[in-house]
Amino acid sequence: MLQTWCARLRKRGLDTLPFWLILPTVLVLLVVQVYPAVYTLWLSLHEREPQGWFYVGLKNYNRLFHTSLFSESVGHTLVFLLGYVGLTMAAGFCVALLLSRNVRFSGLYITLLFIPWIIADIIAGLVFRLLVVPDYGLLSGILQNPSLFLPHGLSVLTAVRPQPWFGQFPFPPAPAMLYLILASSWRALPFITLLLLASLQTIPTEIIESSRIDGASRTQVIRRILIPLMLPTLVVALFSLTLSGMNGVGMIFSLTSGGPGTSTEVLSYMLYSIGWRQLRFGRAAALAMLIALVNWLLISGTLRFTRVQDRRD
Length: 313
Prior knowledge:
This protein is mostly helical. The protein has a domain at 67-279: MetI-like fold. The chain has 14 helices and two strands. Strand 1 (46-49) and strand 2 form a beta hairpin. The protein is globular and about 75 Å long. The termini are far apart. The relative contact order is 0.12.
């Protein structure tokens, strides 16, 4: 009887062992992710008054949608993402192609290329800001030359945005936005380059050599062979850049602070401004939920695409 009872207890302990092993991870996820998400949702439905918190329903979302700065920030976010993602993907692909040729000192080049990735966003933004600060910036002498930039030179951090071409959509962007795109692409270039380089190195060289024997040009090899074979990695890199561009605020904070005016105020910086400058936590939580929804759509789209590609393979 005692042996049977011990055997049952041992079997029950073995059956529940996986649960006890993952329990610490589940508790950490509940504290770090689930609780903040639920609290942010609760916060977006309430408003702070001198007497305390009051339930306001969807009023925070309604106020947010009817704010002119919100629609303007959406336009700035789209312009920033198009420039940031496009420039980083193109530059990363070109650099990965160069490094895949097994040139001399390629290991040294990869090591030097990785330096921007280990620098914090705020530090990188401060460095780029110091380059164009009027009077003593390293590039200020070139930018403020009237013969190069008519009529009185160019001040990147203070130049106003040109007249929009398409109604109220902020295009062409301000010089500060273009400079922000350049700085952000420089910061993200190492990761994307290494990701694409790893994908390039998995392609058998026999395929490329046989296509060249058949008379395919370098452009045709890239378009018809490399890009199709690298498509899953390219999609992952694309969505990774989009997510980082949607949520990054450190570079904007230290480089432009959303200015001049609101020319570089994207949604992530608008969230910081509403929450920590204006102290409108309910409205900031509503904006955070909208950004989280966009992030969820991007992540689910990436996972669905990768699953489809795995089934085809």
